[in-house]
Structures are given as C-alpha cells and as structure tokens.
C-alpha cells in the first residue's frame, strides 16, 4: 500500500516524475482522486464551483474548514492542502498564523496555500518557521481580480521578471511548492528551471514539475471552462440524462419498480 505523501516527500519530487494534483471539496470525490493523486487541494474555487458565487472573494474560513474536514475523511494517501480565503491572511503574519492554525487544527490537513509573491514572503516565512507548511500561488491570482481588472493571464514578456522575482521570494521564504497559474509556457519553464521547489502548473506548461486542475472542470461538470482546461469526461451530460430519465419514470409511475420496494415481513 502507498504511504501518505509528506511535505518533504512532495518537495523531493522536484525535477522527477510529474506531481499529480487535483482539487477536491467533498469526501467521495476526494476518495476517487486520492487513488491517483500526490496532492489534493481544497481550493477556494469551491466558492464558485460548489456555492455558485461569482468569484472567490466571498469564501470564508468556515467554508474552507468544512470542506477541508470532508476531504480529510475521504483521502488517506495524498497530501491535503487547504486554500486560505481572501481576507484571512493578508493583514499580518500573526493573523495569517492564527487562521492557518485553525485550518490545520480543525481539519487535520497537512498544509495551507496562499496567493501572493514577494509581498507574502514574510508571512510564508512566519508560518513555515512555526510548523505550518505553505504552498505558494503566483502568476494569475484570482483573489486579485479587482486590482487586476479580471482574470488576466501573464503573457507579456515585460511582466516575466516580476513573476520570476515572486517565485524566488516565495521559495526563499520556505514555501514547499508553488502553484503557477495562467502564465505563458516560456515563463512557466523558466520558473521550473530557476526555482528549487516544485512548480505546479495550471494554465501554464507541461514543463512544470506537476499539474493541477479543478476536478469539476476536468470531468466536464461545468458548462463554461477556461481555455487551459481539458475535459476528460462528460459528467454534465450524464447527469442531465439521469435526471431527465428519473423525471420521466416518476411521471409515468415506472419508478420505483418492485425491486426498489420493501417486501412485507411475515
Ligand atoms: O482554488 C483553486 O482551485 C486553486 C487551484 C486551481 C490552483 O487555487
Ligand atoms: Na485558489
């Protein structure tokens, strides 16, 4: 049986076999993903994917803790990382520690992830020195959508040096890995070559040390997905067909059939 992935074990895969990562928000999905994944991320994308929010800004620490608990009940092999939601870590390293410690204590997850580059390096250092492993997240940062004016990929060469500096800063601060989101392949490759920690790409490049996608995007459950998503399944069509058939059979009293009913005991 596979042993549980550890934070040092994950970092040690730098430059090795690609690290396989997916998001999970619920116990059963976590159980399915756990069979193949090195890391499961309880992403704050759950605000949009599960709760129907327009973006991730309204997600709370309570949401993250509740879904983190569910995922921990479903996974026993993968490293489980929980996203710090907008507003829970930016103010100071001390507040970040207090909230990250709540996540770790109340979910049993192994690490947290937070968005930010050079500006978050002191916080990353504060947390990792005090026992909380941090996965960083640079490039396109969805929590910065209002300052960026939307979800903007990093595609202009004049932006590359700033993102490369973010990568250096988070690695030097002690991040055990870094998500690289929405950047041109050349920049993803450069980050992967320059940084001593695994780069996990999303909308980045196959040159990264690993990849991550949102589970619901990947299985085809969401109607609209970004360009960088490959749909490996057709869950939305399957669910539509199932609910349509159910509705039809109930309307025609064909469901429940005899095999779905309890026999009288004698
Ligand atoms: O919230 C999320 O799902 C994420 C990943 C897509 C990296 O941050
Ligand atoms: Na996120």
Automatic annotation (TrEMBL):
Gene3D superfamilies: Phosphoenolpyruvate-binding domains (3.20.20.60). It is found in: Cytoplasm. It comes from the Bacteria. Keywords: Cytoplasm, Magnesium, Metal-binding, Pantothenate biosynthesis, Transferase. The active site is at residue 181. Catalyzes the reversible reaction in which hydroxymethyl group from 5,10-methylenetetrahydrofolate is transferred onto alpha-ketoisovalerate to form ketopantoate. The gene is panB_1. Pathway: Cofactor biosynthesis; (R)-pantothenate biosynthesis; (R)-pantoate from 3-methyl-2-oxobutanoate: step 1/2. InterPro entries: Pantoate_hydroxy_MeTrfase, Pyrv/PenolPyrv_kinase-like_dom, Pyrv_kinase-like_dom_sf. 3-methyl-2-oxobutanoate binds at residues 44-45, 83, 113. It comes from Paralimibaculum aggregatum. Its EC number is 2.1.2.11. This is 3-methyl-2-oxobutanoate hydroxymethyltransferase. NCBIfam families: panB, PRK00311.1. HAMAP family: PanB (MF_00156). It catalyses: (6R)-5,10-methylene-5,6,7,8-tetrahydrofolate + 3-methyl-2-oxobutanoate + H2O = 2-dehydropantoate + (6S)-5,6,7,8-tetrahydrofolate. Belongs to the PanB family. Its cofactor is Mg(2+). Homodecamer; pentamer of dimers.
């Amino acid at each position: 049986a596979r042993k549980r992935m550890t934070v040092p074990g994950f970092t040690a895969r730098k430059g090795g076999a690609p690290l396989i990562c997916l998001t999970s928000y619920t116990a059963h999905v976590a159980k399915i993903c756990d069979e193949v994944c090195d890391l499961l991320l309880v992403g704050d994308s759950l605000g949009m994917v599960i709760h129907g929010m327009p973006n991730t800004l309204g997600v709370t620490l309570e949401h993250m803790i509740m879904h983190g608990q569910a995922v921990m009940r479903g996974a026993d092999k993968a490293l489980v990382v929980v996203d710090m939601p907008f507003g829970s870590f930016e103010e100071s390293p001390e507040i970040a520690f207090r909230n990250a410690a709540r996540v770790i204590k109340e979910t049993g997850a192994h690490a947290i992830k937070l968005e930010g580059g050079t500006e978050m390096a002191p916080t990353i250092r504060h947390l990792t020195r005090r026992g909380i492993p941090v996965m960083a997240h640079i490039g396109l940062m969805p929590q910065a959508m209002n300052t960026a004016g939307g979800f903007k990929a990093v595609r202009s060469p004049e932006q590359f040096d700033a993102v490369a500096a973010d990568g250096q800063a988070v690695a030097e601060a002690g991040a055990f890995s870094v998500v690289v989101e929405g950047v041109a392949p050349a920049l993803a490759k450069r980050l992967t070559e320059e940084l001593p920690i695994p780069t996990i790409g999303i909308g980045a490049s196959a040159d990264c040390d690993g990849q991550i996608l949102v589970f619901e995007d990947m299985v085809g459950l969401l109607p609209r997905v970004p360009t960088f998503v490959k749909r490996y399944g057709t869950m939305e069509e399957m669910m539509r067909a199932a609910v349509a058939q159910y509705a039809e059979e109930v309307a025609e009293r064909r469901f429940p059939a005899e095999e779905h009913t309890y026999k009288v005991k004698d």
